[in-house]
C-alpha cells in the first residue's frame, strides 16, 4: 500500500485563482501535503501573504490569466509543474436576454480561455516527464444548466468536455485530467452572487442540495488533493461532483 506521505510530497503544482476561496484552500491543502505550490492570481498582495503562510517554497505569479503571453512566461519561469489546477473562475447572474456580448467574452475568457492558456503551456513538460495531473474546477451549472447563468454554464460545460478530451489525448503520457464540480461553496464568489437576495437566496441554495447545507472550500480541496495525487493515477476523464448531492437532489 502506498505510504500516505508519498501521495503528493515532492511534487510541484500551480493553482490558478489560488489567492482566495476554493483556490486558497487547495493551495493550503497541497502545501500541507508537501507540494511546492505556485499561486497564479491577479491579486498579488493576498496571494503573497498566503504563500508566506504556507511555506514549503510556495510562490506567486501575479498574472491576469486571460493574458496568454504572461501566463506562458510565468509557467516557463516557475515550472515545470507535475500538477495544474485550473480553478480561477467568475460567475455572473443575468438572464440571457440581458447578457451582453462583452459579458460573453469576459466570462468565457476567464472560465474557459484561461484554461486553454494554462493547459497548452504545462502539457509539453508533463508529456516529456511521463507524469501529470490536471484538475479543473467546473460547476454543477456545467452539467445541469443554470437559470440566470447561461454563459457561465456554457463555459463550465465546455470545460467538462475539454477535460475529457485532454484525458483521452494524454493518457499514454501518464497524464490524468479530471473535473471537480462544486455545488454552492461558501466563498467570496458565492457571497457576491447572493448579494441582494440575502438569507432567502442562501436558503434556496442549501435546499438545492441533498445535504441541505453549503459546502466548504476544504471539502473541494480534499477531492482535488486526491485527483492530483500519485494514488489517484487510475482516475481520468471523470467529473466529480462535490456538491452535497445537488445533481440528484430533485429526483
Ligand atoms: N463558490 C461556489 O459556490 C462555486 C460553485 C461552483 C463552482 N465554483 C468554481 O470554483 C472556482 C473558484 O471559485 P471561488 O468561489 O473560490 O471564487 P473566488 O471569487 O472566491 O476566487 C476566485 C479567485 O480567482 C482570481 N481570479 C479571477 N479572475 C482572475 C484572472 N482573470 N486572473 C487571475 N486571477 C483571477 C481572483 O483574484 C480570486 O482570487 C471557480 O472556477 C468557480 O466557478 C464555485
- Series of H and E elements: EHEHEHEHEHHEHHHE
Determine the CATH superfamily. Answer: NAD(P)-binding Rossmann-like Domain
The CATH architecture category equals 3-Layer(aba) Sandwich
The level of helicity is 40-55%
CATH fold type: Rossmann fold
Report mean pLDDT, rounded to a whole number.
95
How are the strands of the biggest sheet laid out side by side? Answer: 3-2-1-4-5-6-7
CATH class descriptor:
Alpha Beta
Q: Compounds present?
A: nicotinamide-adenine-dinucleotide
SS field, number of helical segments: 9
How big is the Rg? 17 Å
- Number of beta-strand segments: 7
Residue stretches low in confidence (pLDDT < 50, at least 5 long) are none
Q: Please indicate the count of domains.
A: 1
> Major sheet, described briefly?
7 strands, parallel
Distance between the termini: 38 Å
Q: Rough shape?
A: globular
Which structural class matches the secondary elements? Answer: alpha/beta
Task: State which percent range the strand residues make up.
Answer: 5-15%
Amino acid at each position: 500500500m502506498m505510504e500516505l506521505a508519498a501521495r503528493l510530497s515532492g511534487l510541484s503544482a500551480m493553482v490558478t485563482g489560488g489567492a482566495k476561496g476554493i483556490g486558497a484552500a487547495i493551495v493550503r491543502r497541497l502545501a500541507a501535503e508537501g507540494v511546492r505550490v505556485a499561486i497564479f492570481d491577479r491579486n498579488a498582495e493576498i496571494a503573497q501573504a498566503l504563500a508566506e503562510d504556507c511555506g514549503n517554497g510556495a510562490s506567486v505569479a501575479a498574472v491576469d490569466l486571460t493574458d496568454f503571453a504572461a501566463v506562458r512566461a510565468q509557467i516557463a519561469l516557475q515550472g515545470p509543474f507535475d500538477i495544474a489546477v485550473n480553478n480561477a473562475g467568475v460567475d455572473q447572474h443575468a438572464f440571457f436576454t440581458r447578457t451582453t456580448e462583452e459579458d460573453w467574452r469576459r466570462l468565457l475568457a476567464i472560465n474557459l480561455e484561461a484554461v486553454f492558456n494554462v493547459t497548452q503551456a504545462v502539457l509539453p513538460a508533463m508529456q516529456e516527464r511521463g507524469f501529470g495531473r490536471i484538475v479543473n474546477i467546473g460547476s454543477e451549472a456545467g452539467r445541469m444548466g443554470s437559470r440566470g447563468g447561461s454563459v457561465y454554464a456554457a463555459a463550465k460545460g465546455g470545460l467538462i468536455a475539454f477535460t475529457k478530451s485532454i484525458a483521452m489525448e494524454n493518457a499514454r503520457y501518464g497524464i490524468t485530467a479530471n473535473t471537480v464540480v462544486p455545488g454552492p461553496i461558501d466563498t467570496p464568489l458565492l457571497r457576491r452572487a447572493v448579494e441582494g437576495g440575502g438569507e432567502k437566496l442562501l436558503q434556496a441554495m442549501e435546499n438545492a442540495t441533498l445535504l441541505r447545507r453549503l459546502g466548504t472550500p476544504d471539502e473541494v480541496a480534499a477531492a482535488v488533493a486526491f485527483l492530483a495525487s500519485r494514488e489517484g493515477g487510475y482516475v481520468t476523464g471523470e467529473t466529480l461532483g462535490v456538491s452535497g448531492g445537488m445533481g440528484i437532489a430533485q429526483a
